[in-house]
Write a structure and sequence with these properties.
The complex is a heterodimer. Chain A has 16 helices and ten strands. Chain A is of the alpha+beta class. In chain A, strand 7 and strand 8 form a beta hairpin. Chain B is an alpha/beta fold. In chain B, the strands form two sheets. Chain B has a five-stranded mixed β-sheet with strand order 1-2-5-4-3. A two-stranded parallel sheet of chain B has the order 6-7. Chain B contains three helices and seven strands, in the order H-E-E-H-E-E-E-E-H-E. Classes of the chains: A alpha+beta, B alpha/beta. Chains A and B meet through strand 6, strand 7 and strand 8 of A and strand 3, strand 4, strand 5 and helix 3 of B.
């Protein structure tokens, strides 16, 4: 055995994280403090949605796929109904399209704020965590008002939406947006101007544009690496082509760019919702569908983490013959193999979390050496916080 | 007709095109042409692999490679067929890392062999005692409902 391989150790992160929707098991292969390789294991929380979906009717499928993810629980049913509508060749009424966009963008705001909060917690800035989650609460209250639920909104159905936005809701939604915009602006300035946060996030976990294209990453992960894609603009659906807004793209590819993309996207989402509320058309919120003809359909939409892809094959019955579902993390997590290499172990948890796989439970991390526990999850989190403290001292 | 489709037809005249709508194109191709056409879509036309779908049909296995052309918002789906007694398809994961996970998954759930794949070890059931010859997404899987067998 060479000297180089003698000092290699495995640091397992995972496998089961009760706070996240997508449990993963990362085996970090380290030499001293440096990560040299990564193995990823999946399947711990596989619930067989692609197997179950052909057992359900088209009306029931959105309720099933809504439960794929508790955070972006509008993206999957929206993509599923878009696939069903593509298969049937129908279009929902304009009012339904606007309501879909409003709910979808509200979801993006709360998901991005959630990630910013977790990123703060990872590097030892619990104030950022508490701020971000406090402002996210206003968005959840808007959801509760519109749909009756803080998550799992059950908003989409084939042919339209289930919940209307009543005129009396609009001032309250606008007030919540004003508040969230003001507070997010303050948070963004505080986060992006902080020298310690910059030092912790800049140049960490870099995914180059070439790597992003080779691994087909999507969403903020791709846009922070300079890949200018966004399904809302590229493949217009709902009301996205009727409201002016911008796609945020940054070239750096590091964790700081990923944080910046998400924070700036919150303002674009607020802009889209305001535009939709200002132009909300009158009319019905759904269309009657009698049957889904044999054929196939593709629905995709931009979830907070990136493109969600649903493919449905119909045989003319009242259930899908095959339903393929691809969540954004499926492509993004795979790219960690290149993003995490060469970085420090204190940055590994942050890099793995930067693609927003809801990988937020460092309490479950443990490091073993020669079969014995070396670091517990808490100690690994402490390592990350200590690095932040060292930087704080340097920047004083 | 889109520019990319014209280029594809020029280079590969054997491709059969079904245009579901202007942004959803399905290209049925011979099994042995898959790698050449997939490389053409990704390397020369700049398309991104969204995902692949594997389907067990009455006539054999159908594998769909969904490529996204982001500048026009179009999905080009490459459709290849493999007979049930010879479920082999050339791996795209060998040259394209984005295809590696989904090919492993299709190998595991449908029993399709991807020739040349760098790592076809179990993906979703890696830590369980799942029997190697049971494929949950096949039509003859014992627990599958018979609703579609009518």
């Amino acid at each position: 055995m060479s000297d180089e391989t003698k000092t290699r150790r495995i640091v397992p992160i995972g496998p089961y994280h009760p706070l996240q929707e997508e449990p993963e098991f990362f085996k970090l292969i380290v030499e001293g403090e440096t990560v040299v390789d990564l193995e990823i294991h999946l399947g711990y929380n596989h619930r067989g949605h692609e197997f179950i979906s052909p057992e359900l009717t088209y009306e029931q499928v959105p309720f099933l796929v809504e439960r794929i993810c508790g955070i972006c629980s509008n993206s999957h049913p929206l993509a599923a109904v878009l696939a069903i509508e593509d298969c049937a060749g129908i279009k929902p009424p304009p009012r339904a399209n606007y309501i879909r966009s409003i709910i979808h963008e509200l979801e993006r705001i709360h998901s991005h704020l959630l990630w910013v909060g977790l990123a703060g917690h990872f590097i030892g800035y619990n104030t950022v965590w508490m701020w971000a989650w406090r402002y996210r609460e206003h968005v959840l209250q808007v959801f509760e008002m519109i749909t009756g639920n803080r998550n799992h909104y059950a908003a989409n159905k084939p042919g339209g939406v289930r919940w209307d936005i009543k005129p009396e809701y609009i001032p309250e939604i606008r007030a919540a947006l004003d508040l969230v915009e003001k507070k997010t602006l303050m948070l963004t300035k505080a986060v992006l101007d902080d020298p310690v946060i910059r030092a912790r996030l800049e140049g960490v976990g870099v995914l180059t544009k070439e790597q992003a294209l080779a691994w087909s990453v999507v969403g903020p992960t791709a846009r922070a690496s300079g890949v200018d894609i966004d399904v809302r603009r590229d493949d217009p659906h709902c009301a996205y082509d009727q409201i002016p807004w911008n796609v945020v793209v940054l070239p750096e590819g590091d964790v700081f760019a990923k944080a910046k993309v998400r924070l700036l996207e919150i303002f674009e989402s607020i802009r889209i919702i305001r535009g939709c509320l200002g132009n909300l058309p009158d009319g019905p919120i759904d269309t009657r569908i009698d049957e889904i003809p044999p054929g196939e359909g593709i629905g995709r939409t931009e979830a907070p983490r990136g493109e969600v892809f649903h493919y449905i094959r119909s045989d003319g019955s009242n259930r899908p013959l095959r339903h393929k579902i691809r969540a954004p993390s499926y492509m993004n997590i795979a790219s960690n193999v290149v993003a995490v290499k060469g970085g420090s172990i204190a940055d590994a948890a942050l890099t793995l979390a930067a693609v927003d796989p809801c990988y937020c439970c460092t309490e479950r991390m443990a490091a073993f050496e020669d079969g014995k526990l070396k670091y517990s999850g808490k100690e690994l989190l402490r390592l990350s916080w200590q690095k932040t403290e060292r930087l704080r001292e340097r920047f004083k | 007709m889109s520019n990319s489709l014209i280029l594809i037809r020029e280079r590969f005249p054997e491709v059969q095109v079904f245009e579901k709508n202007p942004r959803r194109l399905y290209l049925t191709i011979p099994r042995e042409e898959l790698t050449k056409i997939a490389q053409f879509l990704h390397k020369e036309l700049g398309m991104r692999l969204s995902i692949c779908t594997g389907i067990d049909t009455r006539d054999g296995f159908e594998v769909l490679y969904h490529f996204s052309e982001d500048k026009t918002g179009t999905i080009y789906t490459l459709k290849v067929f493999a007979p049930k007694d010879d479920p082999k398809i050339d791996s795209q994961g060998a040259w394209f890392p984005a295809a590696q996970w989904i090919e492993r998954e299709m190998h595991e759930l449908l029993g399709i062999d991807f020739v040349g794949h760098p790592n076809l070890t179990p993906f979703l059931t890696s830590d369980t005692n799942w029997e190697a010859d049971r494929y949950p997404l096949r039509r003859d899987y014992e627990n599958r409902s018979e609703s579609h067998e009518r």
